[in-house]
Amino acid sequence: xxxxxxxxxxxxxxxSSEGPIRFHEWLGDSWxxxxxxxxxxxxxxxxxxxxxxxxxxxxxxxxxxxxxxxxDPVDSHKEWIxxxxxxxGCSVNFxxxxxxxxxxxALYDMIHPEAxxxxxxxxxxxxxxxxKIRLTITYPASTGRNFxxxxxxxxxxxxTDEHKVATPGNWEVGGDVVIVPSLQxxxxxxxxxxxxxxxxxxxxxxxxxxxxxxxxx
Length: 217
Ligand code: BEZ
Prior knowledge:
30% of the residues lie in helices and 21% in strands. It is an alpha+beta fold. It folds into two domains: 13-144, Glutaredoxin (3-Layer(aba) Sandwich); 163-207, no CATH class. Strand 10 and strand 11 (204-207) form a beta hairpin. Bound molecules: benzoic acid. The active site is at residue 45. It comes from Marinobacter orientalis. Keywords: Antioxidant, Oxidoreductase, Peroxidase, Redox-active center.
């Protein structure tokens, strides 16, 4: 059965370009982004891994560890990393899991046989420090992912975990947010949102980003 939001991310032990990984232990207290790609030495994957490497500081600011996966072996990953570094102007700074026996792919339902019988699709999981799955996205092999969107969702998750708000469509850090409908106590609202709020409708109450001074530190 496929994994759903709120499920515990399955633990595993598998080899990677940086040596064997015990997933939960490797994550520690960090957030995690686990993402699969169809194969090494393919063009779209090369750009995706380059982008991830270049976003290292952005991931670090949010306490996120990234880890990629494909069904290719470690030696292939290591050779391909040289190409990624050369062509994308980066230094790959995260492990790529070598899931030759498809153990992790099966646990995370990353092979979609009607799309490809043996290769992983572009699955991505965001996992929180409690090892719960907080975001799943699946892209086809022909479409590279938008890693700025992944960061945007992590920003939203980290803020909404902390404050009684949710983020509207196309929200970006610093933009107005909505007060969750379950929060009705006006004293608590005043205390939580000293800048006030605008009730567009009783259920749609906009307030400035409670972390608007947030610098990611
Ligand atoms: C790619 O990463 O470029 C790719 C992989 C599989 C199919 C099509 C494109």
